[in-house]
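Figure S4 source data
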Amino acid sequence: MSKIRVDKWLWAVRIFKSRTIASNSCKSNSVKVNEKNSKASTEVDLGDIVRVHKNGFQFEFKVLKLISKRVGAVIAIECYENVTSQEELNKYQSWFTGKARPEIREKGAGRPTKKERRIIVDYKDNYLEFDWDNED
């Protein structure tokens, strides 16, 4: 295998949960290959640097292995090298500090319905994308 589509590779090494999400991320210019905006069909090769903007964080990965099928997390880690800057990793780590506690729901309310779950997910996405430095 000489080259593989970037959306397929990102999905196979578990950067994104689904290939559709990976493709949509490419369409929204959140994925760059070797500093160039990439479409989902852009091909990656060994040694390429893939930059992914995800949930307000900027991750960088160096391609070490090309795989087209989704594999377990242990094998997936061997397919790339995380070359994200230390500053960005610190920002990512500090964001997760204290977030291990599960969310609390009123007693007797049961599981959220599909509609409620979508509202919760939209709220969380908007919270992550909010520019806290410029609250004006």
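Figure S5 source data
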Amino acid sequence: MFKIISLSAACLFASQAFAGPVNVNTADAETLAAELNGVGPIVAARIVELRSTKGAFTSPAELTEVRGIGERTVEKNAEFILLK
């Protein structure tokens, strides 16, 4: 049982470790959901929607304007968020 729990935990952390840099100003919702930790398909679609109405994000902090994204989510993904 311990081995199963350990393997499950390792898989969980491995999936988070492979999040990659993603340009939040050009990526589609599917890519955003796949590459940003804590961002699922619905929130990713909201990023694309806000971007299309407001224009390009100029700082990662602007992502907190998206319903479902807080400061903690931005902090967790800071190294993966590209703007250009």
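The beta strands are 22-23, 81-82. Helices lie at 2-17, 29-35, 41-54, 71-77.
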